[in-house]
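Human: Here is a favour to ask of a fellow structure person. Comparing notes only helps if you start from a blank page. Give me a protein, with the fold worked out from its sequence. Please set it down just below, with no commentary around it:

Assistant:
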Amino acid sequence: MTDGQNTARHTALITGASRGLGRALAEALAADGWRLIVTARGAADLTAVAAGLGPDTIAIAGDVADDWHREALVDAADRIGGLDLLVNNASVLGATPLPRLEDYPLEQLEKAFRVNTIAPLALSQELLPGLRKRRGAILNITSDAAVEAYDTWGGYGATKAALEQLSAVLAAEEPDISVWWVDPGEMRTGMLQDAMPGEDLSATPPPADVVPALLGLLAGRPASGRYRAADLRPAPARSAETGS
């Protein structure tokens, strides 16, 4: 999906694109010639990021948990002829400081499920017809908290575990598209700092370090499934002379 001469025709929708991994991936795909639809809740931050992504970028601020906002994203994708890639990256941590399950505020847990689990499925449902036509892909960003039992991470981990199961079933039901759910590993992000207040994260790798693995996933187009970014091969460097 990212090789050489065809990249200019590729279009991606990236949620949570104003910071962290979403921003880093958007910048890399824009540099590779992709047209982008980017979204995030913070309008000012999103506008600033979109300004650096090129004139073909469409920025639509809003919360993916809101029906009307998802409709606006789907309309934008339809207007430009459909998508090759949907990246469900937007997430919320849930209640903070991270509580034990016995104390978890259920309203906060419901909100986390709406953003982290239901919204990715809702967007996928709306965009599946176009993705099938273009034999596109869905990339769902997950976490090791989905498969490991970490103290106080039960709420967030449950939302990502549910997203992983939805991804697995979607992959089984949709043979004409690729469905990948990727654990990026620990990254130096605002979300991680919120989860670990007071911790020194200076030695934690930035989100940009994960992007080559995701580009390798797009270039290699492996079978649908769960992947760890640490196990993925980066995309091969393109020759400046040949453009491939």
